[in-house]
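Table S2 (text version). Query chain:
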Amino acid sequence: MKKMILFVAGIGLAVCLTACSGESKPVAESTEKTGESITNESSADKENAEVVLQVAIENSASEPVGQGFKKAQELIDEKSNGEVAIELYPDSQLGDKSSLIDSMLLGENVCVLADGAFYADYGVPDFGIVFGPFLFDSWEQCWTLIESDWYQEQCAKLEEKGLKILASNWIYGERHTLTTEPVNSVEDLAGMKIRVPSNEIQSIGFDVLGAASTGMALGDVYQALQTKTIDGAENPLGTLYGRKLHEIAKYLILDGHVKNFTTLVCSAEWFDSLTKDQQDWLTETMVEAGEFNNGVYEKADAEYLDLMKSEGVTVVEPTEEQLEAFKEKAAPFYEMGDKFGWSDGLYKTVREAMGE
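Corresponding structure-token output:
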């Protein structure tokens, strides 16, 4: 089988859990925000590998997801005996998420972390609801949902659009809000410019809370906080800390507005070009690496919070009453189905699919 080559031009879940489920020069980059020198290494000697999948993430390699992909490199090397290799490009080295997803539609051998909100923008509107504010009350509801018939149907629709989900069992984290001015309640968000990823679901999901959402690539957030272009950002603690955003924004409210499970997505065209063994090695690897990631996340989340506190961040832990106020403020989001192009009764369908 010929070696598959990624040509990057101008871009600067098993079955669904397991089956809803090349080559470039290594780049060494020293990143100011993480303070570590990162060399992109394959999971095997890519000169001998028949297949190379380039995993591009906006996160630093030190975050739980970065460690999860390092585990994936080990696993794929073992499973394929070096036939398949994974290259890891952290810190947005290959560009922003939307550009990378666009490249997948051209058949390129790149993989990213992405979520339902992005898939809504790529032709599967119902997928967007999984990123709605305060949809999930527990992680167990997330895992029930991704095993449901409804979720498998969404994965199949996405594949028809050209995008293949390799795994959906990765915890990205509970998303909290970090700001340059104190936020003690949902009312305090009124008018604040809060960075969100550049997609409609997450933008409107934060707008309904009273904030003024600002779509922006993660790599641009540090400078935007420095220049006061934005007043804050939302993300899991590992990402907020990993990008050193707390150096500028010193107020954190643990609102947990989204329980963010994430998916690994690649080109359906590229995936279909692989042999059955190669496909199985990849999907099995990504699911197993997801389990590893989740273990790392569970321990790291508490450590990140302690670090942020020790480095001068004021942390607000909302009371149940305060969280209920957030949920009430978010409720109108689920009445906007027509705006998002959702199927009739989608909210009820999803709540039932998650075991409620």
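Notes on Table S2: Residues 28-173+261-302 form a domain with the D-Maltodextrin-Binding Protein; domain 2 fold (CATH 3.40.190.170). The first helix runs from residue 64 to 80.
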